[in-house]
C-alpha cells in the first residue's frame, strides 16, 4: 500500500486529509496483513462518489432485466433478448459491457438448460416451454460498470428444474448473509457450497464472480468452494458479484469449440445461475444490482 503523509489528501479521492479519512482503516488492514490475511488493494476500494456513479449504472442494469422478465416467454429467440438489451441500454445513454469484450459478439449472455454461462444469443435458439434460461446483463454508464443476472423459467418447467433454479437463488441469498465488513470472502463461499451440496447439487469451480465497478472484471476473483475464515478480507467500499453456477449433476464443464464462448455441463444435465452485485458497507452489505 502507498500511504500518504497524515496531512496529505487521502488516497481514496475524498479530498479529506488522510489522518481524518483512511488512516485508521489502513492501520487495521496492516494488522490483518501481519497475521497472514490476504487484504484488498486500495485500487479496488471505491469512494462515495464512485459508488454513487456505479449505482446509476446498476439502475439501468436492473431496468433491463425487469424488461426481460416482462417479455420473455415461449417463442422468443435469444437474439430477440439481445436486441432488447442493446436497445434499452442505448436509450439510457449507456453501453452493453459484453459487446466486443475480448471478442464477444453480442450485448448479453443467454444460457439455456445445460449451458452453464456465456451463451451467445442466436436467431436459431427459440425458447420453448420447459426451458430454463439465465440472462446475464452488464452495463457501462459514463465509464462505471454494473453486472447481474437472473434465471427465467419458460412456461411450465419440470419440478426438477424448478427446484434447481430455486435452490440456486437460495445459495446466493445464503452467501449474501455472510458478507460483512472485516469478514472473509470464504465465509460467503462456504455458505453457497454447503447449501448446494445439502440439496444434492454441485458447484462449478473454474468460473466465478469478480470485483466490478471501475472495470468489468476486477479483483477479487470470487469462487464458491472456499472455506469460512479464508480468502480475501472484506472491507467497506469493496464491490463484487455473487454468481454461483450450480449444476444438477457433476461440476465438470466444457467450452463449445464452435463459438469459443458457451460453457456446457459435461454430463448434459441442467445448470442454473443467479448473479447479484454487492457493496460491502460499514455495517453489512448492500445489493446494488440483481
TrEMBL record:
<feature type="binding site">
    <location>
        <position position="210"/>
    </location>
    <ligand>
        <name>a divalent metal cation 2</name>
    </ligand>
</feature>
<dbReference type="GO" id="GO:0006508">
    <property type="term" value="P:proteolysis"/>
</dbReference>
<dbReference type="InterPro" id="IPR001714">
    <property type="entry name" value="Pept_M24_MAP"/>
</dbReference>
<feature type="binding site">
    <location>
        <position position="243"/>
    </location>
    <ligand>
        <name>a divalent metal cation 2</name>
    </ligand>
</feature>
<dbReference type="Pfam" id="PF02810">
    <property type="entry name" value="SEC-C"/>
</dbReference>
<feature type="binding site">
    <location>
        <position position="136"/>
    </location>
    <ligand>
        <name>a divalent metal cation 1</name>
    </ligand>
</feature>
<feature type="binding site">
    <location>
        <position position="217"/>
    </location>
    <ligand>
        <name>substrate</name>
    </ligand>
</feature>
<dbReference type="GO" id="GO:0070006">
    <property type="term" value="F:metalloaminopeptidase activity"/>
</dbReference>
<keyword id="KW-0645">Protease</keyword>
<dbReference type="InterPro" id="IPR004027">
    <property type="entry name" value="SEC_C_motif"/>
</dbReference>
<comment type="subunit">
    <text>Monomer.</text>
</comment>
<keyword id="KW-0031">Aminopeptidase</keyword>
<feature type="domain" description="Peptidase M24">
    <location>
        <begin position="53"/>
        <end position="282"/>
    </location>
</feature>
<dbReference type="GO" id="GO:0046872">
    <property type="term" value="F:metal ion binding"/>
</dbReference>
<feature type="binding site">
    <location>
        <position position="118"/>
    </location>
    <ligand>
        <name>substrate</name>
    </ligand>
</feature>
<dbReference type="GO" id="GO:0004239">
    <property type="term" value="F:initiator methionyl aminopeptidase activity"/>
</dbReference>
<dbReference type="InterPro" id="IPR002467">
    <property type="entry name" value="Pept_M24A_MAP1"/>
</dbReference>
<feature type="binding site">
    <location>
        <position position="275"/>
    </location>
    <ligand>
        <name>a divalent metal cation 2</name>
    </ligand>
</feature>
<dbReference type="InterPro" id="IPR000994">
    <property type="entry name" value="Pept_M24"/>
</dbReference>
<feature type="binding site">
    <location>
        <position position="147"/>
    </location>
    <ligand>
        <name>a divalent metal cation 2</name>
    </ligand>
</feature>
<feature type="binding site">
    <location>
        <position position="275"/>
    </location>
    <ligand>
        <name>a divalent metal cation 1</name>
    </ligand>
</feature>
<dbReference type="Pfam" id="PF00557">
    <property type="entry name" value="Peptidase_M24"/>
</dbReference>
<dbReference type="InterPro" id="IPR036005">
    <property type="entry name" value="Creatinase/aminopeptidase-like"/>
</dbReference>
<keyword id="KW-0378">Hydrolase</keyword>
<keyword id="KW-0479">Metal-binding</keyword>
<comment type="function">
    <text>Removes the N-terminal methionine from nascent proteins. The N-terminal methionine is often cleaved when the second residue in the primary sequence is small and uncharged (Met-Ala-, Cys, Gly, Pro, Ser, Thr, or Val). Requires deformylation of the N(alpha)-formylated initiator methionine before it can be hydrolyzed.</text>
</comment>
<protein>
    <recommendedName>
        <fullName>Methionine aminopeptidase</fullName>
        <ecNumber>3.4.11.18</ecNumber>
    </recommendedName>
</protein>
<feature type="binding site">
    <location>
        <position position="147"/>
    </location>
    <ligand>
        <name>a divalent metal cation 1</name>
    </ligand>
</feature>
<comment type="similarity">
    <text>Belongs to the peptidase M24A family. Methionine aminopeptidase type 1 subfamily.</text>
</comment>
Amino acid at each position: 500500500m502507498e500511504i500518504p503523509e497524515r496531512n496529505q489528501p487521502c488516497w481514496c479521492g475524498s479530498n479529506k486529509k488522510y489522518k481524518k479519512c483512511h488512516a485508521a482503516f489502513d492501520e487495521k488492514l496492516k494488522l490483518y496483513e501481519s497475521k497472514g490475511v490476504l487484504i484488498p488493494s486500495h485500487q479496488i476500494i471505491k469512494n462515495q462518489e464512485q459508488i454513487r456513479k456505479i449505482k446509476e449504472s446498476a439502475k439501468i442494469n436492473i431496468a433491463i432485466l425487469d424488461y426481460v422478465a416482462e417479455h420473455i416467454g415461449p417463442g422468443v429467440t435469444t437474439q430477440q433478448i439481445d436486441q432488447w438489451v442493446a436497445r434499452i441500454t442505448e436509450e439510457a445513454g449507456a453501453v452493453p459491457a459484453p459487446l466486443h469484450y475480448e471478442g464477444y459478439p453480442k450485448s448479453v449472455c443467454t444460457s439455456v438448460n445445460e449451458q452453464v454461462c456465456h451463451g451467445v444469443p442466436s436467431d436459431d435458439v427459440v425458447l420453448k416451454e420447459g426451458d430454463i434460461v439465465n440472462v446475464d446483463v452488464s452495463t457501462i454508464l459514463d465509464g462505471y460498470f454494473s453486472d447481474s443476472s437472473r434465471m427465467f423459467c419458460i412456461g411450465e418447467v419440470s419440478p426438477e428444474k424448478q427446484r434447481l433454479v430455486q435452490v440456486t437463488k437460495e445459495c446466493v441469498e445464503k452467501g449474501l448473509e455472510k458478507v460483512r465488513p472485516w469478514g472473509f470472502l470464504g465465509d460467503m463461499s462456504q455458505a453457497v457450497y454447503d447449501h448446494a451440496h445439502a440439496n444434492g447439487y454441485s458447484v462449478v469451480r473454474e468460473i466465478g464472480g469478480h470485483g466490478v465497478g471501475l472495470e468489468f472484471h476486477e479483483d477479487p476473483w470470487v469462487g464458491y468452494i472456499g472455506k469460512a475464515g479464508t480468502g480475501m478480507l472484506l472491507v467497506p467500499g469493496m464491490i463484487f458479484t455473487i454468481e454461483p453456477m450450480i449444476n444438477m449433476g457433476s461440476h465438470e464443464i466444457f467450452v463449445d469449440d464452435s463459438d469459443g464462448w458457451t460453457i456446457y455441463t459435461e454430463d448434459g444435465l441442467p445448470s442454473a445461475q443467479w448473479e447479484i452485485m454487492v457493496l460491502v458497507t460499514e455495517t453489512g452489505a448492500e445489493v446494488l444490482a440483481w
